């Protein structure tokens, strides 16, 4: 009995698979698409090679002085290299840099178990990070105790200040925002109106105004001699401002939870806080992760506004370096450096939010 | 109660900023805390800028250092508060800083309505012109028909129009939004000349592709006297700041430098002896130690040294002395005698 052996499948025609096939169907499917694709390629050719040349190939990397860059036609990264410590630590005394390193290193070490699936005490660790870690960090930065020399907040700066401002804003605005969002949906008239007024007031004024008022107007109202720290004023301003935005994002999540969930919680006999904490908020917060992270990213970038009140965050300390007579004219390098740092942080936040969404996805996502 | 207090102080401060609230208090407070809190610019090349170690230097910073040297015999007893242009006067009014040395133009409005006192002029600035060397122009009066790169909507633009009209000359404006664009255009040869405050022109010149190809013309067409400021109502403190600056100018006039001040101590010249606290009123008039001026000169230098080190030939800005030369050398820097 002869066994029928089917003729092996022929490979698909070369022009519909692989790179050729893909570009035929995606880039050159119609005359218009072909024209647009060619135009885009031309634009890439115009922009990308000179950019790579400027940033990498023609750039000056070695040296310590302006003279090192005199002959180069590309970027002068020596400027950034010479000032890198200042860009990271601000005017913090050099001998005390380890304190900042320790503070941020500690955060990384503490945060790692939170990402380990089998680690059981996540809640306790998170509470420790939220409550005690800020106190430890403040001690490390400010000093004055335990044999550490005191470093005034006016010396804080650079990337570390940006991270502190953003961190304080993020940590303070989330719980405040949750409380405000719940308050706004409350049936108690006074609580509701207080929350509405608070949210609408802070959302109605630009952050730049808030910072400006905190820096310029507040000192005039305070009694003579009280010196209310400028950084603290800015932090409070940012936290209050962001919590109003956060409240609205979370309110969106609360509104998206079907009424049945609220009723089911009540039917179980749960108190208000228990029903919120066990049933409503876990679902609502999960829904609005993209919105929350969006607000965090915006907040991270908004911290640069503190430069108008003379605080040296990453961008401000870079701009300040432009005024050094020895390094006049290297502002583009500084801005590119600032942009790349900001991009790295914002992009990682965005990726983290996406992985969180995936992890918490229980099939409701449409 | 607290609310009333807040409102009352707000009204008091906004209505009468010139209240005599802290008469004589500043000197005591500064002595007690052991340093001068000085408001400076957040970054202006040659006037106040921080190096990579975070040390502040500049012509404006030197005034703060001079005051500290006069008070504590140590020019480093200064803490700097970097301030933006908008914050600077509030910081002074609220007592956050003891003195402001931040390229602040002395005008009648500021002197009379903000509750401030200008303690002198440490830099005579004014609008000037920069041209490319190959244009071959030696004076602004030869610029008839030239094209100017200017920043739109600034007083610079108006001053330029006034100057050309009063001299019966014509010019073609090429306007831009920011000062960076203006420099780029000038560098690219889109105009013959650039106009801005002189101190700015020298900083802008460094940003050009070929800084040596451009030159700043001697004419100054507007008055921008920049100087240190104190809060109104504390004459004692005001005079210390004022005379710290005068001491530097006087020292230059008498040829006393940070290098030779010790040798000059044994000078026979009565003027030198009075300045260095060897005879005459010494420090008692200002409530300072007798060697106050000697300490300034030793640690900060005389005005000329400070100028050359920060903005002059010793710096990359290379600003010419011009109006800031001493009065007996064709400039405007003049200090009353110490006697």
TrEMBL record, chain A:
Belongs to the binding-protein-dependent transport system permease family. HisMQ subfamily. This is Amino acid ABC transporter permease. One of its GO terms (biological process) is amino acid transport. It comes from the Bacteria. GO terms for molecular function: transmembrane transporter activity. Its main location: membrane. InterPro entries: AA_ABC_transptr_permease_3TM (IPR010065), ArtM/GltK/GlnP/TcyL/YhdX-like (IPR043429), MetI-like (IPR000515), MetI-like_sf (IPR035906). SUPFAM superfamilies: MetI-like. Pfam families: BPD_transp_1. NCBIfam families: HEQRo_perm_3TM. It is found in: Cell inner membrane; Cell membrane. Gene3D superfamilies: MetI-like. It is a multi-pass membrane protein. PROSITE patterns: ABC_TM1. The chain crosses the membrane at residues 34-56, 97-116, 123-141, 161-182, 194-222, 276-297, 304-322, 328-349.
Automatic annotation (TrEMBL), chain B:
One of its GO terms (biological process) is amino acid transport. Residues 35-264 form the Solute-binding protein family 3/N-terminal domain. PROSITE patterns: SBP_BACTERIAL_3. It holds the Pfam family SBP_bac_3. InterPro entries: Bact_solute-bind_prot3, SBP_3_CS, Solute-binding_3/MltF_N. Residues 1-23 form the signal peptide. Keywords: Signal, Transport. Belongs to the bacterial solute-binding protein 3 family. PANTHER family: AMINO ACID ABC TRANSPORTER PERMEASE (PTHR30085), AMINO-ACID ABC TRANSPORTER-BINDING PROTEIN YHDW-RELATED (PTHR30085:SF7). This is Amino acid ABC transporter substrate-binding protein. It comes from Sedimenticola selenatireducens.
């Amino acid at each position: 009995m002869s066994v029928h052996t089917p003729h092996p499948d022929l490979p698909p025609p070369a022009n519909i698979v692989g790179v050729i096939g893909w570009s035929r169907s995606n880039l050159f499917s119609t005359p218009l698409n072909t024209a647009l694709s060619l135009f885009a390629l031309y634009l890439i050719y115009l922009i990308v090679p000179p950019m790579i040349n400027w940033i990498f190939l023609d750039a000056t990397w070695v040296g310590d002085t302006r003279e090192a860059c005199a002959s180069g036609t590309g970027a002068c990264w020596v400027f950034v290299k010479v000032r890198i410590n200042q860009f990271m630590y601000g005017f913090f005394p050099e001998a005390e840099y380890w304190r900042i390193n320790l503070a941020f290193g500690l955060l990384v070490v503490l945060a790692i178990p939170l990402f380990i699936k089998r680690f059981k005490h996540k809640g306790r660790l998170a509470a420790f990070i939220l409550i005690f870690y800020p106190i430890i960090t403040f001690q490390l930065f400010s000093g004055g105790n335990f044999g550490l020399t005191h470093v005034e907040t006016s010396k804080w700066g650079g990337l570390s200040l940006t991270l502190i401002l953003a961190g304080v804003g993020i940590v303070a605005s989330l719980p405040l925002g949750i409380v405000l969002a719940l308050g706004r949906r409350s049936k108690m008239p006074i609580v509701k109106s207080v929350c509405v007024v608070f949210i609408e007031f802070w959302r109605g004024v630009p952050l730049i105004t808030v910072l400006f008022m905190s820096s310029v107007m507040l000192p005039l109202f305070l009694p003579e001699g009280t010196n209310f720290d400028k950084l603290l004023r800015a932090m409070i301003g940012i936290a209050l401002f962001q919590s109003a935005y956060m409240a609205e994002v979370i309110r969106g999540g609360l509104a998206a939870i079907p009424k049945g969930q609220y009723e089911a919680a009540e039917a179980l006999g749960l108190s208000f806080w228990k029903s919120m904490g066990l049933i409503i908020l876990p679902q609502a917060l999960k829904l609005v992760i993209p919105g929350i992270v969006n607000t965090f990213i915006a907040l991270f970038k908004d911290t640069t506004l503190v430069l108008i009140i003379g605080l040296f965050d990453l961008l401000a300390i870079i701009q300040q370096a432009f005024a050094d007579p020895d390094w006049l004219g290297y502002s583009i390098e500084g801005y590119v450096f600032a942009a790349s740092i900001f991009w790295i942080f914002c992009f990682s936040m965005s990726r983290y939010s996406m992985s969180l969404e995936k992890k918490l996805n229980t099939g409701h996502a449409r | 109660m607290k609310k009333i207090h807040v409102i009352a102080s707000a009204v008091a401060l906004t209505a009468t900023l010139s209240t005599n609230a802290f008469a004589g208090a500043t000197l005591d407070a500064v002595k007690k805390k052991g340093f001068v809190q000085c408001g400076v610019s957040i970054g202006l090349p040659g006037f106040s800028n921080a190096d990579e170690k975070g040390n502040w230097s500049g012509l404006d910073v030197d005034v703060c250092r001079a005051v500290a040297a006069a008070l504590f015999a140590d020019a480093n007893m200064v803490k700097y508060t970097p301030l933006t242009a908008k914050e600077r006067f509030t910081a002074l009014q609220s007592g956050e800083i003891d003195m402001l040395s931040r390229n602040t133009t002395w005008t009648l409005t500021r002197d009379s309505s903000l509750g401030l006192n200008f303690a002198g002029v440490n830099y005579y600035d004014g609008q000037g012109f920069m041209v490319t060397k190959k244009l071959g122009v030696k004076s602004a009066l030869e610029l008839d028909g030239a094209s100017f790169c200017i920043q739109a909507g600034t007083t610079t633009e108006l001053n330029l129009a006034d100057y050309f009209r009063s001299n019966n000359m014509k010019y073609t404006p090429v306007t831009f939004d920011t000062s960076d664009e203006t420099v780029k255009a000038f560098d690219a040869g889109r105009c013959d000349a650039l106009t801005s405050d002189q101190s700015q022109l020298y900083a802008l010149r460094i940003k050009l592709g070929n800084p040596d190809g451009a030159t700043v013309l001697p004419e100054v067409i507007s008055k921008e006297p920049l100087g240190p400021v104190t809060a109104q109502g504390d004459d004692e403190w005001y005079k210390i700041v004022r005379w710290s600056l005068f001491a530097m100018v006087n020292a230059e006039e008498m040829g006393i430098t940070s290098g030779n001040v010790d040798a000059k101590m044994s000078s026979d010249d009565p003027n030198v002896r009075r300045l260095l606290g060897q005879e005459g009123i010494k420090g008692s008039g200002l409530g300072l130690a007798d060697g106050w001026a000697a300490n300034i000169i030793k640690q900060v230098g005389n005005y000329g040294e400070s100028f050359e080190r920060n903005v002059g030939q010793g710096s990359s800005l290379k600003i010419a002395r011009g109006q800031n030369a001493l009065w007996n050398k064709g400039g405007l820097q003049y200090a009353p005698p110490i006697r």
